[in-house]
């Protein structure tokens, strides 16, 4: 009798342990599985800037935040940023107060004369700001005037023994080579020309990030014969403009322009979809040509709202902002949970097999099986 009671107590204890383990796994799954799903979502979006931006915006966009950003942009007279937040609000279906829209419209009406002045400054001096200023700079560069003007300026510096900006000079030489070089640019010289103008304008304004400047400098050293370019500068210093132009063109190795051409084309795409100020912000923060390409891909989805996305998300709009340790930690936790569930299920199955008595087979008479009786 004592052994039977002990056996029953042991079986009950086993059942309680099993139930506790299953309850613990259930509670752990409610925590681990949703977190692992979020981690996997971030990891799966790591190569898609638009998907990353959507995840980042889900944590940042609200009616109050959009309103604050629009008010701040209007107070700083940053019409482009204010309009970008209006575009983002429309895309995310966030309501904006009519008074805020009216403030942005009033700011737009008051900047017509400023845009005219910016166009003229961009065309004649080359340091255009805003859409009109950039249009002026592009108009000058697209026919080569801006490039020659910049070569002359740097040539004067060289003639006086002053420091010469090799990146600016190299971009000017490449710009001269690209202008009209349809064959060398695979039939798309205009976008490349526009993008290189954007990069050069950012360099002159001191807005080109140090890592990106180093990257562009490396590409220029590969695509441009710098000693030949220095001889071009010496000619410019003597006011021999036609000779300087010819020397600059001869210094460019057109067969090695592909990386610079790709960077210029990506910058041009971003400019066309999101505007000059978005390009300016990108060039101030990007570290390489591939990052410019990721921002260009982002602009395919958000258009004029791209700058607002960048303002809210920073580099997280194109690069994974969550730490890999956080992501892989939850993914490995989910794998551990699955292994624990499988182990618990196997142990439970083995226990059931032990405690369940085997079924005995019924012996069926031969007559019941339809056997024929033996012959006499």
| Percent range for β-strand residues | under 5%
> Structural class of the secondary elements?
mainly alpha
In round numbers, the mean pLDDT is 79
Largest sheet, in brief, is: none
Series of H and E elements: HHHHHHHHHHHHHHHHHH
Task: Show unreliable segments.
Answer: 182-187
Principal-axis shape: elongated
Measured as a percent range, the helix fraction is over 70%
Keywords: Membrane, Transmembrane, Transmembrane helix
Transmembrane segments: 12-29, 327-353
What does this structure look like?
The protein has 376 residues and is an all-alpha fold. Among the domains are: 1-46 and 323-351; 111-287, no CATH class. Helix content is 75%, strand content 0%. It has 18 helices and no strands. It has helices at residues 2-44, 49-60, 63-75, 79-91, 98-109, 112-124, 130-142, 145-159, 166-178, 189-204, 210-223, 226-237, 241-251, 258-274, 276-285, 289-302, 306-313, 324-355. Helix 9 crosses helix 13 and helix 10 packs across helix 14 (258-274). The radius of gyration is 35 Å and the shape is elongated. The chain starts with a helix and ends in a 21-residue tail after the last helix. Mean pLDDT is 79; it is low at 182-187.
Q: What brief labels describe this structure?
A:
single chain, 376 residues, mainly alpha, 18 helices, 75% helix, transmembrane
Q: How do you describe this structure in short?
A:
This protein is an all-alpha fold and 376 residues long. It has helices spanning 2-44, 49-60, 63-75, 79-91, 98-109, 112-124, 130-142, 145-159, 166-178, 189-204, 210-223, 226-237, 241-251, 258-274, 276-285, 289-302, 306-313, 324-355. The chain crosses the membrane at residues 12-29, 327-353.
